[in-house]
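Submission sheet (multi-component)
Chains listed below:
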Amino acid sequence: MYQFEYHRPKTLDEVTALLARLESPKILAGGMTLLATMKQRLAAPSDLIDLQDVTGIAGISVDAKNVTIGAMTCHHDVASSKDVAKAIPALAYLAGRIGDPLVRHRGTIGGSIANNDPSADYPAACLGLGATIVTNSREIPADDYFRGMFETALKENEIIVKIVFPIPQGAAYQKFPNPASRYAMVGVFVAKTAAGVRVAVTGAGPGVFRMTAMETALAKNFSAAAIDGITAPVEEMLQDMHASSEYRAALTSVMAKRAVAGVSA
Amino acid sequence: MNAIDAKKATGIGASVPRKEDFRFITGNGHYTDDICRPGQAYACFVRSPYAHATVDDIDFADALAAPGVILVLTGKDVAADGLGGLICGWLVHSKDGSPMKTGAHPVLALTHVRYVGDHVAVVIAETAAQARDAAELVDVSYGELASVTAVSGAQAPDAPQVHPEAPRNTCFEWELGDKAATEAAFNNAAKVVSLDIANNRLIPNAMEPRAAVGEYDKGTGVYTLYTTSQNPHVARLVLSAFVGVAPENKLRVIAPDVGGGFGSKIFIYSEETVCVWASKKVGRPVKWIADRSESFVSDAHGRDHQTHAELALDANGKMLGLRVKTKANLGAYLQLFSASVPTYLYATLLSGQYDLPAIYCEVDGVLTHTAPVDAYRGAGRPEATFVIERLVETAARELGEDPAEFRRKNFIRKFPHQTPVIMAYDVGDYEASLNEACRMIDYANFPQRRREAEARGMRRGIGFSAYIEACGIAPSAAVGSLGAGVGLWESAEVRVNPTGSVEVLTGAHSHGQGHETTFAQLVSDRLGIPIESVEIVHGDTDKVQFGMGTYGSRSGAVGMSAIQVALDKVIAKARKIAAHVLEAGEGDIVFENGHFTVAGTDRGLAFAELALQAYTGHKFPTSEIEPGLKETSFYDPTNFTFPAGTHIAEVEIDPGTGVVKVIKFVAVDDFGNIINPMIVEGQVHGGVAQGIGQALLENAVYDPDTGQLLSGSFMDYCMPRADDLPSFDVGVTVTAAPSNPLGLKGCGEAGAIGAPPAIINAITDALGVRDIAMPVTPERAWRAANGL
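Outcome: structure written.
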């Protein structure tokens, strides 16, 4: 790790002031990706601005329409929330399968979607449920927010404050973990919402994406059989030492069918 | 508790909880990183980013000027000080009689780097962070060259050369067995079964990374090296006699608590050599702790064989002959035992548990631009077992015979049995282990379980592995005749204190095996004293007489046997003293349950009372019997030991995803007599976990074009975790080893040896395929399940 200055502001205003003033700062949420990258000497921010003391950006609230999760809420809190489990059980289930217990107690939802790792779990929930990402300056629909591998719609120095998940009629997440890293090699989030069926896939491609062919088929007939034979396009899938693009494409179909079965059940 | 009950609770055969665990689980162990010497500086190594390159220039002016930097050293400094290179301690000859060929293994690279992670320079600074910062400022001008990382293609005339001394990257072309007799067997065969087998490369990943602290005492001229070693005396010998860092009497090596070795800490590496050497140059202790990334690229790797194997059978399915051609990847440099692992530790086990009249094996040792490959848990024996057990299972299937029955038909049943590949098996009962394993897994009802799984859409398979291995590698003259540069005996000193407590100084080294418990059990059992009164001392060349260390499951069969012999000497002397003290004839002295008594009387002495008498010397003639009570043994066994057993795996495969789940794993092993059943079972669990890791998860992958290690972190190198494994069912059968006084065979490696073929045989059974490559990743199983 290279040398850096550490800041621990108490308000969002202080955060934005620091961001404006410092040379090449990075925001530190849970640090589960950033700190590891810095230890590997692959990132060298001049300053870290730790959000953990910032008021008003952590915690879970649930009303009749939405589950709202503050950016600094850790995965464990989402996974173990009775309110989330009642409103969107698939979201609590997903959070409970990120990393390991240590990661789930440090890692945050805001950090996850700001980083937008192509094999992270939360992007699938955001896109699958049609969530809204609320920042210190605006509201961004999930459909506009994720822009491919580690790319998002966030502007320079924009800070995620909370994520608003509309409560669906039903939803399920099926994750096929990479055996080594336990990140999603393919993760499929299926939701039946008032606005229609949504299917979001993480891990398989260079960023989370929706499977519109599946959504169309499921809108007509919400059953695993309805999407039999529909797979993501092989040429758009990732390929690495763990899995070929062909295998990842095949898994999108298998995992989607299992997720659909999970919604129906 | 009376003495007899106490002996039952802590003696041989009792599952005594491990004495060492309290300090480990309360964070009170002392590992090398816990050792902080006054004024210590920190070393950081500059490593090659290339698989193969010339080192044209090293400009370290900026590094030297960086904050906290004390010294920067390169290969030129090593050469200027006249240090030798790192050595291989086992000489293998090719079939034409020529000795193996390889280039020098410099402590720091001189003209070339030969694998990613090769040592180029070292920066020594006030803090570890400063050393690392400055290491990045060392400007090395490399001339990148083409590289070769896999054995296939490495022997081509136009392949990039690792060392000019080894043309076609061929270190040796070795053979074992009777070629003509084997040819004849194949000519007479009714059926030949052949397989092309890859044994995947593994990275050891001990929990504690390698580490060293070197210290030089200006007053005495003595160097001290604290390091993560499985064999501190061997480290001292190599560093003195070959590298020439210091004379043997001026070098003390201490291997404190060590968090796992699996073979990777047998070897003498550049890093600890540099810490010792540099400590005099900087006049301060020098410390180096590997980070995990360094461990991945620079610890010696394991396995990495490509093999073509053929089994000849007669019309009744009896084995006639075995023919094996293996290409073993040795990496860029030979490490301490590199040459022996794919030769004498491999081909000598190819007879397995079977009566095989003729075997011929050829092994090419191939140099590549990868990290050195050396002994890793099992060391040659897993590779041999994988070859024979995959062939045997395939033969049974192709003959339409039950795999258990086919093995029974071919088992060796008469002992001693001379195999065609050097080994003389002294004792065993292979059918007993097979039968017990079949009973434990309920083999008879497997078809029903398979049908039930198929009804759930799953593919279920069962696979056998009837392995044999050789442990306690000795006698010394035998290993010497095979090319070993050392003897493989072991030493022990039993030191009885005047109060009757005992210290045992052993040349074995515990880095997870539980010696402090099992060795103490032996002493408690033999001397009839409480286990708490026994201290096991190991890992310090200033305390312990010369010893060979711990590897190859040798510490029980060889190390404990040495203790047993020393204990016999202690008891013999004590008996003489007791006769004088008790004023009786020596022949009338009975030693039982910690008491010396005069037979037929109530006159006696407790062991502690006898010990005090030995040290006062008041009541026996010291002109005849020396005072004191301390005895030493250097014990050399009469043969190898041959642990053997049957492992059976049952797997289920999801054809939709290819996920392989190990449903059941039964291991029935014959380890001879057992000192501590709980520790033995723990060793089996760990070994089987590593074996399943090799079969399903672990794979060291180099990029074929660039020679970069792609599986260089736990994000990509998949270590087995608890949820990857079933709850193991472990059983034992016993035939006591006749080659050592305790009848022990060794249990440390059996799991890693037996498990991989059991898993692969189960997977191929489930999928109805002839072969599948390790590790069976979900994608590989998915492709096989779907005919892709």
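Remark: DSSP finds eleven helices and twelve strands in chain A.
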